[in-house]
Design a protein that fits this description.
The structure is a homodimer of 564-residue chains. Chain A starts with a helix and ends in a 7-residue tail after the last strand. The longest helix of chain A has 21 residues. Chain A is globular. In chain A, the strands form 7 sheets. A 7-stranded mixed β-sheet of chain A has the order 17-20-21-14-12-22-23, with helices on both faces. In chain A, strands 9-8-7-10-11 form a 5-stranded parallel β-sheet, sandwiched between helices. In chain A, helix 1 packs across helix 5, helix 6 crosses helix 7 and helix 8 packs parallel to helix 9. Chain A is an alpha/beta fold. Helix content of chain A is 41%, strand content 20%. Chains A, B: Keywords: NAD, Oxidoreductase.
Chain lengths: 564, 564
Amino acid sequence: MTTTPQSLFATHEATLRSAVEASRSRAYWSAFPEMPSPRAYGETAAADGEAAFAAHRDQPFALDQPGATKAPAGTLGGERSPFGFDLGITYPAPDIDALIGAAKAAMPGWRKAGPDGRAGVCVEILKRLNARSFEIANAVMHTTGQAFMMAFQAGGPHAQDRGLEAVAYGWKAMTDQAPAARWEKPQGKNPPLVMDKRFEVVGRGIGLVIGCATFPTWNGYPGLFASLVTGNAVIVKPGPTAILPLAITVRVAREVLAEAGLDPNLVTLAVGDTIAKDLALRPEVTLIDYTGSTGFGDWLERNAHQAQVYTEKAGVNSVVIDGTDDPKGMVRNLAFTLSLYSGQMCTTTQVIFVPKDGIQAGAERMGFDQVVAVLAGGVDKFLSDPERAVEVLGAIQSDATLSRIKEASKLGTVALPSRAVVHPKFPEARVRTPLILTMDAKEEDKYGHELFGPIAIVVKTDSTADSLERAARLTRTRGALTAGLYSTDPALIEQATEAFVEAGVALSVNLTGGVFVNQSAAFSDFHGTGANPAANAALCDLAFVANRFRVVQSRVPVVAEAAP
Amino acid sequence: MTTTPQSLFATHEATLRSAVEASRSRAYWSAFPEMPSPRAYGETAAADGEAAFAAHRDQPFALDQPGATKAPAGTLGGERSPFGFDLGITYPAPDIDALIGAAKAAMPGWRKAGPDGRAGVCVEILKRLNARSFEIANAVMHTTGQAFMMAFQAGGPHAQDRGLEAVAYGWKAMTDQAPAARWEKPQGKNPPLVMDKRFEVVGRGIGLVIGCATFPTWNGYPGLFASLVTGNAVIVKPGPTAILPLAITVRVAREVLAEAGLDPNLVTLAVGDTIAKDLALRPEVTLIDYTGSTGFGDWLERNAHQAQVYTEKAGVNSVVIDGTDDPKGMVRNLAFTLSLYSGQMCTTTQVIFVPKDGIQAGAERMGFDQVVAVLAGGVDKFLSDPERAVEVLGAIQSDATLSRIKEASKLGTVALPSRAVVHPKFPEARVRTPLILTMDAKEEDKYGHELFGPIAIVVKTDSTADSLERAARLTRTRGALTAGLYSTDPALIEQATEAFVEAGVALSVNLTGGVFVNQSAAFSDFHGTGANPAANAALCDLAFVANRFRVVQSRVPVVAEAAP
């Protein structure tokens, strides 16, 4: 049987409907197994993925996209693993006019595939990506510095779930109105007015996805699939240090499109240090998805007037500690949060507000200094075994973060110094443990802006009310993707929930077990809200998809048939 | 029984569900009777409405909103009926800081009313407005120049239907995800992770509605109700010549809000010539709905970075005539379209493309000149009886349009001159019939930009293919809200439909009866597409509402109960 968009829809319709239902109910659901187990992925999957990654190294990455051969500057690349070796991969330098021309030419055929057909193709791309999760995990690990397990989960199945979520939302939004209707308006004693109407979903143009250095697939897939499923072409511009995961993604997407009889130029790759600005201002580019620095995000929002711009930028995430009846669980939970991927997550807690008079911890009072001590001790103990530590910490992604750790240690009183850990397998990997500082609440000029990386500050406040007021204000002024609260007082929890709703940030309360403030689950947790400066959109909701397409109608009168 | 948001939701839930269902099916539906009949509105409704309008005249318009008494400049007004008399109404000069402060203070209570409660309140406001349709019709008539029947229908029930449509879409979008969920993630042999989650809908801030001179309620209600139902406060800034219809609207909204125990400052009025720019750049203003000139619309899109901006601007609407088997019906239909409200609709056809070799009209060929002659003759005949003519034409809204008619007559060959008609009831009314010109296709510099008012140009093209190419290009470059086609060739109709879908404009085919290209029906026809320069949004779809609110979540672990 020939593969068509419609046949792919038939194959994946049940998955799609489950995804739509999960995104409504917000109960637990996932389409892609998160454990890298042979049972889920096959006996040879791990070895195959490692071999596929090895085969990419020291080679040109072949991509048969337009302009690749006649590009002026030849090839680009230069990725280096934070675990200590060069990838040696080169990519075709993009010919922007050729990519844009090819993308525009591909769009009418993509429109005609219709909402169902496009959704079917997109789910098929995601399933193919899932099958390559080990290869992608290695690519993510050795570009971002994530340890393997995280690179597999966040870079593979969790990213694919976020992509599927975007497909499901896009499909739901596109099919919100009937594709055709008979409209019959009564006219009293006269015959009714009767019209046949058609409602066509039309993509807005070309989507540009600007990838980030730390989560190229997880942060890239929502925009990529939201734009693609809604009828647009997509040009993927990876961050210069994390190209490979998105290059593999583009290649897989092109393969599936071609197999389904569609133009593969609907998805292309544009590698280059300075081309993001050029692409972002092109009139053909009507959608931009961006994750990265506030500076460039603000520039996009203020200059790319022709496009709908979705940004995720910097923020300062807070946790407010009022009290807990499980101090050990709290410390264990926070230690993991601060350590995971060396705090290089946009969702990692940076500021922990503790009242100067301390907290109620189970049966006893715990002074401010004691809270700091148990937290520092908890992190230190959690990372005491190097073999285990490196599997949580991963490696430091950028030189800038390395320097930041050094500089930050001068900002306040050091409660726990950051130390280098020698990676048992990769001796050249740059591994660092979290730095924990203490500061006074009034030193907001030091702790109140993003210090990206393994840097946490315990801030001494007058009271929990003071903590809440400060955390909410930081969220409103500096942005935040996450907030946390520990308290045993139901009234205070309700009051804090209200304060964080008004500040516009997702709140996690009393996490002491296996759920962490810096992790969100597709189909249930929204990542970001769009309601504070850290992001102007959420992953994923109706607002994230509904503005990526238009509905264009036609209508024609129905002529009454002559009586027989 | 006390009126509450929840009790209003209970009262109006069936209406709301019908509106949601109609907007999905796109079949005919309306909540508000469009005929100004005593049966629908009551025996005394017409007289009561006229009396209510008369009572507004030569009076200050009382509105108990913040800052009204201490406003610096006193009062503003100066509306004059295009039918020839001053309204003599004055409005409180706004104190912008007071309005913004009061709006922000009102929002938390409005959020707590929840999606259902807010929708209930909004439908109640619309029902109250409906009961005052005669009063509003008189206000619309004597600010915009619409004839009474149109002022009633478009200014009353049709505008109310468009408002209800926005409420229905907003309610649907806000309730797209469950308000709360229990999330239970399996952990193999270990107990599952269990979290309780809440998802709160939060408005983005203050919505600013900038009204237009010709359809203050019809173009104003969608933005007003879309922003309001989604949890925002709204400041209504009417066009300086059409204040009264929106002032009445604001007063009714405030009454209903207060009766439901809510803060009436959620809806306020800001009258003034130059305050739109000041308001539009305020950081508290996060949503802007604008109908008017392309110049100010572009300025808003480029400068109000803090806000989501929805604009409807200028355009050039085309009809392509290829052939017809009902030439009389075609001419009758076009004559009405060109005459209705003297062509002062953003949806009125401006350019009619006809091939130089003429068209097939029923059994015979009709040359280009003959097409022009029957069209000019049809319009002339349709408007030959002054008493009937004024009920279609209404009056010319602005001096600028009066001058434009005069200037335009020099642009091409006059096929039908515009003439003044003496209004039997209002001798000072400025009534004008449509001017019809002919031009050659190459004179696009003359016909290819908006000539707002009763000005139509029949353009001579090489062929229907040429006509289609030109109409589609005009749409893409200059924008259009409507397009029309007359053809008896099914293949050509399909090809033209495709061309107009790609150009991004709604197409009406072979209209010869009681449906007109310049009219759209709420719940079935989208007004505008957002896919060409005439508008960046459609009334009304998911994209129009989904970005007006945010979802903010909180989550807390469910602690396993001890076994009994």
